[in-house]
Design brief:
Structural class: alpha+beta
Mean pLDDT: 83
Oligomer: single chain
Strand content: 25-35%
Radius of gyration: 24 Å
Number of domains: 3
Shape: globular
Helix content: 10-25%
Low-confidence stretches: 311-318
Number of helices: 7
Length: 343
């Protein structure tokens, strides 16, 4: 079971929106199987004026599944025919095979399987060098209680569903208790989604803070090792130009939209895929493509090439990850500070 991101485009959007206002997503175990809707009244994908690309995360998906989409009107209950089948292996979390075809990757040169595998490698590489992931991921995280009212959290917070604190009353006591904390008593730092704030950017310093209802008593996170369990959605996402900003209810701290992959990361992944695709068949091309920006001196008569040392991410040069500064400058902007650790 895995999170499968489905992507599709709406053609003739203006005409479609004259009859429909949302979209249903259907799933089947095989391309020719029986398709059943996996969305509902609260999870269907709204049609938005000016937005032609749409996404849906199947949180219980599998890379063998197939998907179809229909247009639907919530008032008249009018529904269109289902779309053509969309394979779950149509791409990764950030980039699809169609994205790469649109970038000019020729199917006669690179078949879908090869493009898919390269996309997955590129996305894994980006997550490793940045120390982050860039899509909503549902997790139960264990973090260290601090003994104060502030609890730093590693990955960026999208929404918190449940908080439990592990409590061991004494070393001689083998019994372990989990105390559930009221999420409403905690201030969640996810304002980049609930309020659209980018300064300060809560993705750079995600944390939970106890609200101080009683001035005489300040609640604190019980100090310990991995003794606080946070369940919810996490990931370094951002709102798109058509995403609605706000909360599902006043002071709920639950965003209306969980955000999506930053366009700079998508661009970086596409560039890496285009860079790596030919390298699997030609080892010379990988050396040329990744080191051509590090050339310090060329002696043309004898065809001698001298390379400089690869720069680090903190230096003035940015060819620290792939060797291509056009890619690395994009990745450097999203790199997690070393002091916060890695994913």
């Amino acid at each position: 079971m895995a999170i499968i991101k489905i992507k599709w485009s709406v053609e003739e959007l203006a005409n479609v929106m004259t009859q429909f206002d949302t979209q249903k997503v259907y799933r089947a175990a095989s391309q020719g199987g029986t398709y059943s809707e996996i969305t509902g009244p609260g999870t269907r994908v709204d049609l938005v004026a000016g937005q032609t690309d749409y996404y849906f995360d199947d949180l219980t998906g599998d890379d063998t599944y197939w998907y179809k989409v229909s247009y639907f009107h919530t008032g008249t209950l009018l529904e269109s025919e289902l779309s053509d089948a969309i394979p779950a292996t149509g791409g990764g979390n950030y980039v699809s095979v169609k994205d790469m075809r649109d970038e000019g990757v020729d199917e006669s040169a690179y078949d879908d399987d090869r493009v898919i595998q390269t996309i997955k490698l590129a996305e894994s590489f980006v997550e490793r060098v940045t120390g982050r992931w860039f899509y909503p991921r549902h997790l139960s995280l264990r973090v260290d209680g601090t003994g104060s009212d502030v609890l730093p959290v590693g990955p960026a917070i999208i929404t918190i569903e449940e908080v439990r604190v592990l409590y061991e009353p004494a070393a001689c006591y083998p019994i372990i208790y989990y105390n559930e904390i009221d999420v409403g008593a905690i201030r969640i730092y996810n304002r980049h989604l609930t309020q659209g704030l980018r300064e300060p950017d809560d993705r750079e310093a995600p944390k939970l803070v106890f609200e101080d209802y009683d001035l005489a008593t300040v609640a604190k996170w019980w100090k310990g090792s991995q003794n606080v369990v946070l369940t919810g959605y996490f990931g370094y996402t951002q709102l798109g130009p058509y995403d609605e900003v706000g909360e599902t209810a006043e002071y709920s701290q639950v965003p209306l939209n969980y955000g999506s992959c930053p366009p700079e990361i998508k661009d970086a992944v596409k560039r890496i895929v285009a860079l790596w695709l030919p390298q699997r068949a030609d080892l010379d091309s990988i050396d040329d493509s990744t080191r051509r920006y590090d050339i310090a001196r060329i002696k043309t008569r004898d065809q001698e090439i001298q390379y400089s040392a690869r720069a680090s991410a903190g230096s003035s040069r940015v060819s620290w990850a792939t060797g291509d500064p056009n890619i690395d400058v994009l990745l450097a902007a999203f790199r997690r500070p070393p002091s916060l650790g890695v994913v």
